[in-house]
Each structure stands twice: as C-alpha cells, then as structure tokens.
Amino acid sequence: MIRDEQGHTLIEFIIFVVVIGVLASIGLLGLQASLRNAPNIQNATTSIALAQQRMEFIIGQRNIYGFVDFVDPCPPPTSSTSPLCVVPDGFTITSSIITTAADTKTITVNAVNDAGLYPTTLEELVLNN
Questions:
Q1: What CA–CA distance (Å, rounded) separates 22 from 18?
Q2: I need a surface site. Which of 44, 54, 83, 115 has the fewest CB within 10 A?
Q3: pLDDT tens digits for 85-123?
Q4: How many domains does the chain fold into?
C-alpha cells in the first residue's frame, strides 16, 4: 500500500519546537555570560582620560619650571590642592619622572581602577630643548 505524505505530523512539529527552544536557551545563556564578563567601557575610558590628564599636567609643569627643576606635581600621598591631582573614587594614579640621560627624562603615568582592571600606562620621553 502506498501512502501519500504531504506534510509533517504534530509530533514532528513539537519535537522541532523543543529542539529550537533548547538551542535558543543555550545561546542566550552564553550571550548573558559574555555580556557579564565584557569590559566596562566607561571605566576603561575614565582610566585613559585620567592618565592623559595627569601626563598633560606634568608636561605643563615642565613648561613652567624648565627641564631641570620639574617634578611630579602630585606626589603620593596627594596633598596638593590642585583639582588636577584629585583622583575620583575607585581609581588610583601613579606617576614617576626618571632621568634617563643628561638631556632626557622619562615620564610614566599609570592609572587603574581599584579592582585592578582597565590599567592604562602612558610614557613620554622629554628632551631638554
């Protein structure tokens, strides 16, 4: 006897819907985990902005006081009254000025949030000119 099939049964359709539902739930769980572990762009941007601000402040001090006498204007612990030395809650900024030769100094600025995430390091070689 020959059967003429023109469609799918209800059981096949239910199995198809269940399989699609399981695959979708696995995909959503993976997406949720990746979003939870994704970097927080605002904290990363703040870290970069703080490091750039401190670097520009130090370079500005070099322009005011000259090559020989310029030092970090915000030495730790920061007791400076300059608003550029104030660090927002949740972040730490460190900087150092090292004389690398008679006519060069290397400025290094590090910014990181208190959880140790989103570290930013800026280095600049300053010449005596």
A1: 6
A2: 83
A3: 788 888 888 888 888 887 888 889 999 888 787 888 999
A4: 1
Both ends of the chain: CA-CA distance in Å? 100
Q: How would you class 80 by CB atoms within 10 Å of its CB: exposed for 0-12, middle for 13-18, buried for 19 or more?
A: middle
User: Is 86 a domain residue?
Assistant: yes
Which two three-digit tokens encode residue 57?
A: 């402040």
């239910």: which residue's tokens? 14
Burial of 109 (0-12, 13-18, 19+ CB in 10 A): buried
Q: Note whether residue 13 is domain-resident.
A: no
**DSSP class of residue 7?**
S
- Does residue 109 sit within a domain? yes
Burial label, 64 (beta-carbon count in 10 A; 0-12, 13-18, 19+): exposed
Q: Would 58 be classed as within a structural domain? A: yes
Note down the domain range covering 82.
Answer: 41-127
Tell me the pTM.
0.63
